[in-house]
């Protein structure tokens, strides 16, 4: 009998995943990951890990599977939280959910599972895995979107490797959310009607600027409003001699100065803000709401524009540095000067967009057919062929 360790989060998805594994004849062990115990950074009282671990225990008892809690808070602080502070300090906006899967669930947690003699680890993600049998007897693993297009979570797993996928099971990937809740209700699982958690506990429950202020000190600076016409003409396009020159130009984020607009307010630190952000600016009197179109953490200036269609929010092309480029399918990786037509997204739940990948020595350009709003440094871009996620990278 194959042994599976499942990450029981105390939510309905992992509860049903555990139930399905047991039905399929696996020997199932439930582990709850305790990821946060650092009192040096104050976390909201609402952070419900105690309640979640209790729910996970009740589900494990109901299913008749062994259960224990593992404390991964030291690794979590080092690999996720410290990384987040470091990225925000540089003016980038990290995605902790993607990192948590790569660094915690499918690395630290996976190693614990293997020490327990497990053949696989399982999670409650809405995605699927397929196996290709190669002629030489080896296997290639495909990461596919979940059947429920509203809940597809393949994006959050965009940094997984073939080695990690080899050991991964996603039992609910073929189901929709309503079907998952129905199975939970039919089997009297305590989590059947439980609300979905809002991302990572400490991010979902905490006002992010307050959280960041625990480590990144407030620093007063100015908010500049850039009019639409200044954003459109802040950089005039030169004549291009080849496609690479054009891509390099288009991937460059427009850089503004105070002369491009007028000072409309003050802020407490440019590193607390991200491109596309509307809340927290506290500037009134504009016809349309202000959105952040750029931040300069060195000069501590935030540049804003009126309305969600401000041209400063949009561009076609982004770049991924070679060291931050990742292929889930290394056999499909592009060589220098090769191109590939894909569908891509720059954030979770964004509908897939047509794009072309262009590989150069130093990395990869992702050139979208339509302009994209709020392309943000530090976030992940993921690309697909049909419903298979084949690669990803950090936007630079």
Record the SSE blueprint.
Blueprint: E1 3-7, H1 12-23, E2 27-34, H2 49-63, E3 67-71, H3 73-89, H4 96-115, E4 120-122, E5 127-133, E6 139-145, H5 162-166, E7 168-169, H6 177-186, H7 201-204, H8 208-213, E8 221-225, H9 228-233, H10 243-251, E9 262-267, E10 290-296, E11 301-306, E12 314-321, E13 325-327, E14 339-345, E15 353-360, E16 363-373, E17 380-385, E18 388-394
Parallel strand pairs: 1-2, 1-4, 2-3, 4-7, 8-11
Antiparallel strand pairs: 5-6, 6-18, 8-9, 10-11, 12-16, 13-18, 14-15, 14-17, 15-16, 17-18
Helix pairs in contact: 1-2, 1-6, 3-4
Question: Would you give an account of this structure?
Answer:
With 396 residues, this protein is α/β, with parallel strands linked by helices. It has three domains: 3-213, HUPs (Rossmann fold); 221-237 and 255-308, SH3 type barrels (Roll), CATH 2.30.30; 314-394, Beta Barrel (Elongation Factor Tu (Ef-tu), domain 3), CATH 2.40.30.10. The protein contains ten helices and 18 strands. The strands form three sheets. Strands 5, 6, 12, 13, 14, 15, 16, 17 and 18 form a nine-stranded antiparallel β-sheet that branches. A hairpin with a 2-residue loop joins strand 17 and strand 18 (388-394). The protein is globular, with a radius of gyration of 23 Å. The model has no long low-confidence stretch (mean pLDDT 91).
């Amino acid at each position: 009998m194959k042994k599976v360790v499942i990450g029981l989060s105390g939510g309905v998805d992992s509860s049903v995943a555990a139930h399905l594994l047991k039905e399929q004849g696996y020997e199932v062990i439930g582990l709850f990951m305790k990821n946060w115990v650092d009192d040096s950074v104050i976390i909201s009282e609402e952070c419900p890990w105690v309640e979640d671990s209790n729910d996970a225990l009740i589900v494990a008892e109901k299913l008749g599977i062994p259960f224990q809690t593992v404390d991964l808070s030291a690794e979590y602080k080092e690999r996720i939280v410290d990384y987040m502070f470091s990225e925000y300090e540089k003016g980038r906006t990290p995605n902790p959910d993607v990192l948590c899967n790569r660094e915690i669930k499918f690395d630290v947690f996976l190693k614990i599972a293997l020490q327990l003699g497990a053949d696989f680890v399982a999670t409650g993600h809405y995605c699927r895995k397929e196996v290709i049998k190669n002629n030489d007897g080896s296997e290639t693993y495909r990461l596919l979107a979940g059947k429920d297009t509203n809940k597809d979570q393949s994006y959050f797993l965009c940094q997984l490797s073939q080695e990690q996928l080899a050991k991964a099971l996603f039992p609910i990937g073929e189901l929709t959310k309503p079907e998952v809740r129905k199975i939970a209700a039919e089997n009297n699982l305590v989590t059947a009607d439980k609300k979905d958690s809002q991302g990572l506990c400490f991010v979902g429950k905490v006002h992010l600027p307050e959280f960041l202020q625990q480590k990144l000190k407030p620093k007063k600076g100015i908010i500049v409003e850039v009019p639409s016409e200044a954003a459109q003409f802040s950089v005039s396009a030169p004549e291009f001699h080849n496609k690479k020159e054009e891509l390099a130009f288009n991937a460059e984020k427009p850089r503004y100065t105070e002369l491009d607009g007028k000072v409309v307010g003050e802020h407490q630190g440019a590193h607390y803000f991200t491109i596309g952000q509307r809340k927290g600016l506290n500037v009134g009197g504009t016809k349309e709401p202000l959105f952040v179109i750029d931040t300069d953490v060195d000069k501590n200036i935030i540049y804003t524009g009126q309305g969600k269609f401000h041209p400063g929010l949009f561009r076609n092309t982004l770049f991924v540095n070679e060291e931050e480029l990742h292929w889930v399918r290394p056999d499909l990786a592009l060589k220098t000067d090769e191109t590939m037509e894909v569908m891509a997204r720059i954030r979770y739940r964004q509908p897939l967009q047509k794009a072309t990948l262009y590989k150069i020595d130093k990395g990869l350009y992702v050139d979208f057919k339509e302009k994209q709003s709020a392309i943000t440094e530090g976030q992940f871009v993921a690309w697909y062929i049909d419903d298979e996620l084949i690669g990803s990278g950090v936007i630079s």
